[in-house]
Design goal:
The chain is an alpha/beta fold. It is 35% helix and 23% strand. Strands 6-7-8-3-9-10 form a six-stranded mixed beta sheet, with helices on both faces. Helix 5 packs across helix 6. It is globular and about 55 Å long.
Length: 264
């Protein structure tokens, strides 16, 4: 039996007179690549924002690994292993690819004024004069290097973000999310605006991350011609509701889904 990593129960969200989410319920299986589809305005991004803590639902619950995380702010979810990316990457443009990953490392003692100057130990003079953040920084670099290898970004590790292609920027966004040791990644249109060849490369990397690191992905994506080859589970939304779920072929052949897309 598959484990459930994310459970949404009767979540409702309205903006004044606009009902964006209407009693949404769904379960995302662990170590699977799940995709959320639907016409523009169907509520997909609102749902991602509720799950990731950017919006509080008006009613309903969000559970991550069995724990109620409804309304938990994004930075706390980040520390719990739930991270997200955005449709438009928001990187530090003048920092290198490696540096962009390093700033996303959590619990770095070098960020503390006191810990930045404290020694790492007193068993030897060398350790006494070495700041405690030094070893953590070395481990963070090693960790970031492994992630860059998995994402195929090792050759551009020292390039500033502003010279990267759109597809590479998307991969750096994923890399930064992985620096949190995330187990569930919410990706908002990871291949939008990316040429087909690199779009397939991005999904191939997502597949590799799932298989090698045991990650779960919940993805909002419009480009079904690209995504379908890599997806395990599909959810379809319309008018703020989940109207179908299951294997991709079953969902896409569902009459309600077809009508929602074609206006029937």
């Amino acid at each position: 039996m598959q484990s459930v990593v994310l459970s949404i129960r009767d979540v409702t969200k309205a903006f004044e007179n606009l009902l964006a989410l209407d009693r949404v319920s769904m379960e995302v299986a662990e170590r699977k690549i799940s995709i959320l589809i639907g016409p523009n305005g169907s509520g997909k991004t609102t749902l991602i924002n509720v799950i990731s803590g950017h919006y509080n639902p008006d009613s309903g619950k969000v559970f991550y690994r069995g724990q109620d995380v409804t309304g938990v702010p994004p930075y706390k979810l980040y520390g719990m292993g739930l991270a997200r990316t955005f449709q438009i990457p928001a990187l530090f443009w003048k920092l290198t690819v490696l540096e962009n990953l390093l700033v996303a490392e959590k619990n770095n003692p070098g960020e503390s004024f006191v810990k930045a100057v404290l020694p790492s130990g007193i068993r030897s003079l060398k350790k006494f004069i070495t700041p405690m953040w030094r070893n953590n920084e070395e481990r963070a670099v090693e960790k970031a290097s492994r992630i860059l290898d998995l994402l195929g970004l090792s050759k551009v590790w020292d390039r500033p973000a502003f010279v990267l292609s759109g597809g590479q920027l998307k991969l750096v966004e994923i890399g930064r999310a992985l620096m949190s040791d995330a187990k569930l990644l919410l990706l908002d249109e990871p291949v939008s605006g990316v040429n087909p060849t690199l779009a397939h490369e991005i999904f191939s990397r997502i597949l590799k991350l799932r298989d090698e690191l045991g990650l779960t992905f919940f993805i909002v994506e419009h480009r079904l011609d690209i995504a379908l080859s890599y997806v395990d589970q599909m959810f379809a939304m319309a008018l703020g509701r989940i109207i179908a779920s299951g294997p991709p072929d079953d969902v896409l052949s569902n009459k309600t889904v077809i009508e929602a897309y074609l206006g029937g």
